[in-house]
Amino acid sequence: MGKPWFYLTMAVLVLGFCAFSGAESREDFFRIDDLRPGMRGTGKTCFQGTEPEDFDVEILGVLRGVSPGADAILARFSGGPLEKTGIFSGMSGSPVFIDGKLLGAVAYSYAYSTEAIGGITPIDQMISAVEESEALPSGKIYKKGSLWNYKLPLPSSGLNAAEFPELISRRANLSGGGNRLLPITTPVSLGGFDPRAIKTFAPMFGGIGMTLLEGAAADAASLKTAVLPFQPGDNVAVSLVQGDLDVSAGGTVTWVDGDRLYAFGHELMSSGFTELPMRKASAIAVIPNIESSFKVLEAGAVIGTVRQDRSSGIFGIIGERPRTIPLEARLTTSRRALKTFRYEIARDALLTPSLVSLVVYNTILASERAQGFLTLRVTGKIRVKGQPDVEIGGRFSSNLDAAAGASLAVAVPVNHLMAGGYENLDIEGIEVDITAVERDQLAALDSIRLDRTEARAGE
Questions:
Q1: Is beta strand 294-310 parallel, antiparallel or unpaired with respect to 390-398?
Q2: Cβ partners under 8 Å of residue 102, min gap 6
Q3: Relative to the CA of 49, which of 281, 285, 290, 379 has its CA 20 to 30 Å away?
Q4: DSSP label at 205?
């Protein structure tokens, strides 16, 4: 009779020790209830290069219930270039310390503010947002439907086709009144892109709080520190496209616990469970701007995976290699030259179709004329693990923007696949062949003639 009680007692002691150890690890955090107006602290962020620098923080107060179940800390920031730039895009996640203890992440600002006054997301909120549902959902494909061998409809002309997913999030409805505390916009650096592609897609990404910037293609070799551990205040880039083009969303590391990393202090897209490449980055410069200052980043090698994207920040695992979707585009130009482009696209149900459309659109714009008639023939396939290939294709002719229809011919089927309820869907790759001709190959229906005017029932 004594042994069961002995085992039960030991189990209780072990659980109690684990709980105590967890509480002890949180002693490095500054409690929001202990804050008082006028308290001063220190923040860390990278203004240039890869080494975090200090800036000054003055606590103004606590904003309770800024969103359901969430608080924010209002503070004034100073030091370094902040007097000229104010709070800038790319500063999201910059850690703030009071008495040497981590308080939270710089995450909010006021539009057109004349001072660097903004909001801090408490670190406890950042951690609890991902701990509530830490295990990835699992299961088999639960809806087969009639997708395979189904002829998908051709997309409408233009990038606003009804079949194409619209990028939306909680931030899409937050418009820029200067009296509202808003999440800091996320700078997205685009390397190798035609300015027309950036202009076309800027409103789409702007709806989820992202600002598209012309940047440089990534050079992993230029960042020798990419293999070193992250520390609070480091630059972090979430990679959306790699290869012959580069698309990276930038922010700042808030806290690192072993191989677990917390950053941004607000959502990237609020996409929940995700699998996005995480890269170390170098700050080229912080550019002062009247509307919103921003940091220009150069992303380096992939060193981990973003696993969750929640309203209080992103959570990643250092050292974990993410899956991406290879896309190979072969373009036969109107001058009969064959060009081959290779990309790695981030795997995310919300973003992937938009990214596919962006890279195919830019692939065409980079080589073909912008004025006059252009006809594009698109063929290709989407390789899905364990399933027959999904064939894609179409022909698009226009004197305005044939590239838009051609890019959607690839992106819309990808969207059908990723939004079709296939929980374990694994897209292994996309192959696209595009042929361009500088002439009108449209066919117009002139008239219809019938060989008779009567028909019998059943015909």
A1: unpaired
A2: 28, 29, 30, 95, 96, 123, 232, 254, 255
A3: 290
A4: H
